């Protein structure tokens, strides 16, 4: 099966959107970048206090659930804590900003997967500097205001002291009327839905019935269903490469 000749809606711009368009082009598809959401780091008193404690060694672990969180961190801060990332894309963003990453799940790049990796650190998880995680640990979890409590609650249930801090906000972007008309007219054969916020934003539009909705993992598929979008394709793991492969398999 092939994506050749297909047009795929890419819901974010910037370097991420360019990379996704390149991946699609390798398969003969055209990426159509329509930025639906953006992230904005928050610099609240709670965030500043947490970052001050982080720099002072007040936490054993920093848990990062999205590449967007990297914008919250001060690159000049000496992070004394070990760092856990929810997946390889988040780990790459952290490392690109100069932060060493100690723990990444091997396959399930979700809150549940990170909890499992936490339990199996040094055995089944990718642990680069430490083979075990003492309990209780002092853990800072930086997340979006839309994040579920799965990770923070799971760590607390495992006996850790958790400071759960909203570090960034997801904002829905305005879309020009001409772009909305192109969507309704079927310019895109498929749309990549990478998060619940993207699903909510996409659901604003009059979409053609023939458009294939490709969701990044089962949680995103559930979020899409909650706003009235069907999930035609669900990536088995939360990477953009897996999502494009899954879309290719049904095209």
TrEMBL record:
Q: Tell me the superkingdom of the source.
A: Bacteria
Q: Where is the Tetrapyrrole biosynthesis uroporphyrinogen III synthase domain?
A: 23-244
Q: Which InterPro entries match?
A: 4pyrrol_syn_uPrphyn_synt_sf (IPR036108), 4pyrrol_synth_uPrphyn_synth (IPR003754), UROS/Hem4 (IPR039793)
| GO BP terms in the entry | uroporphyrinogen III biosynthetic process
Note the Gene3D superfamilies from the entry: 3.40.50.10090
A single Gene Ontology molecular function, please?
A: uroporphyrinogen-III synthase activity
Q: Which residue positions does the secretion signal occupy? A: none
The molecule here is called Uroporphyrinogen-III synthase
């Amino acid at each position: 099966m092939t994506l050749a000749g297909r047009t795929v809606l890419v819901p974010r711009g910037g370097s991420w959107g360019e990379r996704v368009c390149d991946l699609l082009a390798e398969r003969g598809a055209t990426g159509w970048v329509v930025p639906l959401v953006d992230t904005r780091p928050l610099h609240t008193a709670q965030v500043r206090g947490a970052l001050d404690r982080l720099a002072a060694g007040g936490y054993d672990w920093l848990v990062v659930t999205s590449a967007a969180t990297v914008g919250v961190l001060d690159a000049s801060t000496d992070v004394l804590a070990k760092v856990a990332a929810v997946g390889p894309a988040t780990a790459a963003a952290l490392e690109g900003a100069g932060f060493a990453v100690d723990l990444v799940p091997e396959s399930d790049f979700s809150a549940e997967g990170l909890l499992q990796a936490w339990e199996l650190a040094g055995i089944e998880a990718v642990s680069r500097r430490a083979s075990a995680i003492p309990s209780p640990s002092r853990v800072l979890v930086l997340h979006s205001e839309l994040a579920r409590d799965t990770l923070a609650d799971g760590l607390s249930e495992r006996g850790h002291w958790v400071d759960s801090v909203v570090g960034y906000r997801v904002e829905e972007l305005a879309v020009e009327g001409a772009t909305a008309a192109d969507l309704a007219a079927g310019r895109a054969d498929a749309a990549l839905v990478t998060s619940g916020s993207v699903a909510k934003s996409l659901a604003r539009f009059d979409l053609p019935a023939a458009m294939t909705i490709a969701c990044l993992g089962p949680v995103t598929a559930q979020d899409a269903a909650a706003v009235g979008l069907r999930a035609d394709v669900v990536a088995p793991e939360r990477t953009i490469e897996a999502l494009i492969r899954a879309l290719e398999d049904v095209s």
